[in-house]
Amino acid sequence: MPSAEDERLMRANQANWDARTPVHVASRFYGLDEDLRPERWFAAFEWEDLGELSGRDVLHLQCHLGTETLALARRGARAVGLDFSAASVTAARDLAAKSGLDVAYVQANVYDAVTVLEGRRFDVVYTGKGALCYLPDLDRWADVVAELLRPGGRLYLVEFHPLLNALGPKPGPGEGPELLLRHDYLEGSGPVHRDGTYTYTDGPALEGATDSHEWTHGLGEVLNALTDAGLDVRRLRESDELPWPRWPHMVRTDSGWWRLPEPRIPLLYSLLAVR
Length: 275
Hints:
By secondary structure, the protein is an alpha/beta fold. It has 8 helices and 12 strands. Helix content is 30%, strand content 23%.
């Protein structure tokens, strides 16, 4: 169970994401005022791993603006999105309405998902791309995922690789552009406090809550949490591409995503597990 301190930090994160939401909605990064293409946030291998979604009950945990949730709905899923930010859920509902898609959104902490969804079970739970770092307790998270899945249901996690998170995105004073290990790869050192005055998208400084806290989770911790919860891990992929250029010297690939010049390192990973 998260400690009282972890709970406090998660509430601070919730306030920070409420403050981020209007900046993200107006950003060029998400491009919500343009021709919305939610599929651009998915790698081709994700659709291969997810398989047929038409008529499936799919839950997207920590969905933020719900862009990926819309892509799942476009594939025929009965999609539900869940996020702890009230501002994000409101924006996601507006976006779904404008898109003409029938998607249900629920505001809740991911740890409360089983209770809030009143015991509903799903064929697929989808999550990732910047989600796990906001969870202090992966064992509890994995137990929640297991309870949300029907027997034979699948978790599909697509997350930024812990190596990427360990590399500093910006050089320090007097340093060159080389990527250096600035943060832990492995868990155990406690949360990292970040100044969230500016978010990862373009746009102005946030108004209001700017404190943000992240927890490190190595691949071993993720795998062990899921297997301890009774899930059977079927596939693990590592990818050297990201859906946006995190560093200036990244190059665009034929897929439309971005990778670093040589040497190749993993920047994203996906994991398929079955209950």
